[in-house]
Amino acid sequence: MTSRSVDEHVSRVRALLEPALARRTELVAVTAALGRVLADDVHSPLDLPLFRNSQMDGFAVAAASVTDAPVTLPVAVTVAAGDAGPARLEPGTAVRIMTGAPVPEGADAIVPVEDTESTTDAVTVRVARREGEYVRERGSDVRAGTLLLAAGATLTARHLSMFAAVGMVEVPVLRRPRIAVITTGAELVGAGLPLRPGQIYDSNSIALSASLAANGAEVVSVDRSTDDPEQFREILYRAIASADAVITSGGVSMGEFEVVREVLTPLGGWFGHVAMQPGGPQGLAEVDGVPVLNFPGNPVSTLVSFEVFARSELRRAGGLAPVAEERAPLTVALTSAAGKRQFLRGRRVDGGVTLESGPGSHLVAALARADVLIDVPADVTAMEVGDDVRVWQL
Amino acid sequence: MTSRSVDEHVSRVRALLEPALARRTELVAVTAALGRVLADDVHSPLDLPLFRNSQMDGFAVAAASVTDAPVTLPVAVTVAAGDAGPARLEPGTAVRIMTGAPVPEGADAIVPVEDTESTTDAVTVRVARREGEYVRERGSDVRAGTLLLAAGATLTARHLSMFAAVGMVEVPVLRRPRIAVITTGAELVGAGLPLRPGQIYDSNSIALSASLAANGAEVVSVDRSTDDPEQFREILYRAIASADAVITSGGVSMGEFEVVREVLTPLGGWFGHVAMQPGGPQGLAEVDGVPVLNFPGNPVSTLVSFEVFARSELRRAGGLAPVAEERAPLTVALTSAAGKRQFLRGRRVDGGVTLESGPGSHLVAALARADVLIDVPADVTAMEVGDDVRVWQL
């Protein structure tokens, strides 16, 4: 059986995934764009505010006519927000105006209502105002053509509010990688069904689909196959028709009923051993131009494989921040098998990281408690308390 | 007009929201629970593994029968994953076994296939094995009744994988606060429509609904009302029928067409001024037992009001981590109006925080660029470079 280092398999996976997941843009409604990643620079299509408007409820005046405040001016008209309002302020008069309403030409200041006394047709302004006071000039927030937001930003409520304010209906975002999930194994049973002897519940479906969703991918299908090659083949080709890439679990190792290996080897797939634990048995294929990543079926192996081989590439393709990579001191000693890179389940504690469990690949409860993977190099067989180790943030 | 401090209004809002959003549990499918918050402790309904099974592809043997390896044993049967398998291993024989398949009684070790040579009906085991090697004992991962995860955890793919592995179909999670959004203003126009003079695009709908979604709330409705009291009243009562709380924007200040204040004051709503900028004009009501928060309509005021009055309470009710509250040194000097707490748009830079814009409440572009609010106390009128200031993470 052929064997590879982790780094080599990472490179091989990337060589297939990178072109398949190459950045593509799609337009989505501003109302549906929260958390998506902006694909292109966005420039404002219009001035904001689009028209000179009042920042206060009060009276629009010419600053010059209230220099000698207190002064009483006739009020001809009221302008509410949403009104077109009068084109011009007659000299020596005031216009009653609401917040957000257009300021008529000839007016250059707003007197807030609390600085006035008024009747229906006259207002006494008690304090003088400077030109421009409480007037929002056209384009004072944004000028048409200004860069509003650069490509690559992850869209927040504030970004979407800005896009809506300039009248945008849709926004160009990176298309999410579209990934199909296929779990395999005659022993797998869906949730809610009774188990017969020898059967287990399928946890890899949710493990993979939730991991994909949490890393910006769109899960286009989730299917479960038995060890029947015809069934697997049919599911595989259906998945390939709609997905940018496919991830399978199970059916890759040295046993006799390895449906994934059996179907994909004749199609040019590579199956062999990657020098890591858990997750050693791996496969990689390309079918009709669609990458197919074949993870082993143990639940912990599947999740560790996702972390090591798929997660970073998916996040890169989706424009998301890379996975945090850190180093931390061990708070416990550990031993590790020679020649295999170990990904141990660990947990942050005061002063470093500790082990969450042994190396057994079936310990899903321990993995659920872990918050990091501790990455022990292949040539290291023992580490002491205080030794610096690479950790992957889960 | 009555006036309040920010802290007082925060308390008043909390007094209404806290009981209205009190933690309630709902069951959701494990497949739909990513990112939700666990409402109750979850204990395992079964042992995991549920049956003794093989960790490797190979041969199940009694360790005692391979002590003198190399030794050749007859192979009677093959057990694949998913098979019930034979009840017992005949003494002095081996069973060909695949990863995950049940280990027959009488077998207490697995010899990996790579340590053997075999024909159809016999296997030569080349190395001796210790008892228990490559056998996963029943319950070695999780014992039935064990605490799998404590209430309060935000569910990740690894948690969901564990729940699926123990056969759970649904999981108890905190119900998300159900919030209705109503924006008001005769000047508001929906995205994609042409603007007439005096009109602006409604950005508060998306600003509030996206802010709610980003903080764990479920947005049950988003409506826009003109300044017609009958229309607003109708929308309000429809919203109240399905929401735990309602947030409105606009129609609260001192102008003449203040639909929110006009409708809610007779129903016992409070409308007045909170000593802050932006976001001074505020309202708060309770209609048929449902809290109604009334934010001012300027887009920046609306978003700042959400941050100051709603966000923390929503996150607490939804079981999410509290908003990070920090202090940082200013990298610029600033002045601030006396008597009003200022929430200035700021941005983290090397060595502290800087201002993103002036205090104008219409500067949506500046808010979009900001990543913090700088919280300047009401009694402070000037701050110097290096002064320590409270910042709210946006």
Structural write-up:
Two copies of one chain form a homodimer. The first copy, chain A, is an alpha/beta fold. Chain A folds into four domains: 3-24 and 176-318, Molybdenum Cofactor Biosythetic Enzyme, Chain A; 27-46 and 146-174, Molybdopterin biosynthesis moea protein, domain 2 (Alpha-Beta Complex), CATH 3.90.105.10; 53-136, Molybdopterin biosynthesis moeA protein, domain 3 (Beta Complex); 325-393, MoeA, C-terminal, domain IV (Beta-clip, Beta Barrel). In chain A, 21% of the residues lie in helices and 32% in strands. The first copy, chain A, has helices spanning 6-20, 157-165, 204-214, 229-242, 259-264, 299-318, 364-369, and strands spanning 3-4, 25-29, 42-43, 53-54, 58-61, 71-79, 94-97, 109-112, 116-118, 122-125, 135-136, 147-149, 170-174, 178-184, 188-189, 200-201, 218-225, 245-249, 270-274, 276-277, 281-287, 290-295, 325-329, 334-335, 341-349, 352-355, 372-376, 382-383, 388-393. Chain A has a seven-stranded mixed beta sheet, sandwiched between helices. In chain A, a hairpin with a 2-residue loop joins strand 25 (341-349) and strand 26 (352-355). In chain A, helix 1 (6-20) crosses helix 6 and helix 3 (204-214) runs parallel beside helix 6 (299-318). The longest helix of chain A has 20 residues, at 299-318. The two termini of chain A are 31 Å apart. In chain A, 51% of the residues are buried. The mean pLDDT of chain A is 93. The interface between A and B is large, with 94 and 94 residues. Chains A, B: Its cofactor is Mg(2+). Chains A, B: It holds the Pfam family MoeA_C. Chains A, B: Its EC number is 2.10.1.1.
